[in-house]
Design goal:
The chain has helices at 9-29, 36-41, 44-69, 77-94, 100-128, 133-151, 176-180, 185-203, 205-215, 217-222, 227-253, 265-275, 280-302, 310-314, 316-328; strands at 165-166, 182-183. The chain has 349 residues and is mostly helical. The chain has a single domain, classed as ABC transporter involved in vitamin B12 uptake, BtuC (Orthogonal Bundle), CATH 1.10.3470. The two termini are 36 Å apart.
Length: 349
């Protein structure tokens, strides 16, 4: 694809992700598997858990890319995820008597709609009312946490969730088949969206205009691009992806809703976006690395590691996130017009 698509930290994230997958293949197909510690770090179950843990991070990172590539800072991904999760839960519990597939698809639609509405709200605050975009994102997080906690019916139970679909032929491939080709539909959809967003962002007229709005909005306006319209649309699309990430937690991963169930995934998604240099494949690789830290936490606990307090093991994903962001944030370049309100020559929005 060229160095303009994969550079700096994005390339590093992709290299580390590929190296981890290669090690898993070697450990599970060669004599390296005889070493207990290698099996803890590179087992098939660890890779499976990595992918499941990475899906909401991937969708959240794509949300951030769509918003920030067009110039809107979005730290409210956490709130959009939580709102999408709650909407999916309400939709699912309200339609438990429907056929399972129809009920699940309705839940997906609800998560997309509410996520898009949260994106529109963020765009209104940021563009029309010129609110500081960091404050606007914080408001979304507080809003989603408050409303979901207040309206949550603890007696409601969502019945059923998406099951795995094994792709014929591909699912029989050793190691890779079990990990990548025997997954529920939202996992496949998330991986497909990475390709779609990348191609659209770098190989379409919409993508060129999106990046122009985030880099040189005045120049974009000069050639007739409606900068703020692009920002509205992309922030809504990003919100839909974040809402879908929340829907994944309820409809495919956990199966139920819990207060605050996003548990910082929105912020980890932001870290993945930054580490991935605002590029879909780079952010996906970074999300997989963060997902691996969660899988490692799980594998260490299952292995009965008792010499280290459980709380310290549970801190691993968040410590890694802090180290990565603090270590690489000065080595990446965000879109030049990120966070800057744009006013047209006439002053209209």
């Amino acid at each position: 694809m060229g160095s303009r698509f994969f550079r700096g930290t994005a390339l590093l994230a992709m290299f580390l992700a590929v190296a981890a997958v290669a090690m898993t293949l070697l450990v599970n197909t060669t004599s390296l598997g005889e070493h207990p510690w290698l099996r803890v770090f590179f087992s098939v179950s660890a890779l499976n858990f990595t992918l499941r843990a990475s899906v909401p991070l991937i969708l959240g990172a794509l949300c951030g890319i769509l918003c920030e590539r067009t110039g809107i800072v979005n730290i409210g991904i956490e709130g959009m995820m939580l709102a999408g999760a709650f909407a999916a839960f309400v939709a699912k519990t309200s339609t438990n008597d429907w056929p399972l597939l129809a009920s699940l698809l309705f839940g997906v639609g609800a998560s997309l709609a509410v996520g898009g509405a949260m994106g529109l709200l963020h765009a209104l605050f940021s563009i029309r009312y010129r609110m500081d975009q960091i404050i606007s994102g914080t408001v979304l997080i507080i809003l989603a946490a408050g409303i979901s906690a207040y309206l949550f019916d603890r007696d409601a139970v969502a019945e059923g969730k998406f099951g795995a679909i094994a792709l014929p032929g591909l699912s029989q491939i050793p190691v890779f088949g079990e990990v990548f080709f025997s997954n529920p539909p939202l996992t496949y959809l998330a991986l497909l969206l990475v390709v779609v967003v990348h191609v659209a962002l770098f190989s379409s007229r919409w993508g060129v205009r999106t990046r122009a709005c985030g880099e040189h909005p005045r120049a974009a306006d000069t050639v007739g691009i409606d900068v703020n319209r692009f920002r509205y649309v992309n922030t809504m699309l990003g919100g839909m992806l974040a809402g879908l990430a929340g829907g994944f937690l309820v409809l495919e991963a956990v199966g139920q809703f819990q207060e605050g169930m996003t548990a910082g995934r929105g912020f980890i998604s932001l870290a993945a976006m930054i580490f991935g240099n605002w590029m879909p494949f780079g952010a996906t690789a970074a999300a997989l690395l963060f997902g691996y830290t969660q899988a490692l936490q799980n594998e260490l606990l299952l292995a009965g590691i008792t010499t280290v307090p459980r709380q310290f093991v549970s801190m691993i994903p968040y410590v890694v996130t802090i180290v990565v962001v603090s270590g690489f944030v000065g080595r990446v370049r965000p879109p030049a017009a990120e966070g800057k309100v744009y006013e047209t020559e006439s002053g209209s929005e």
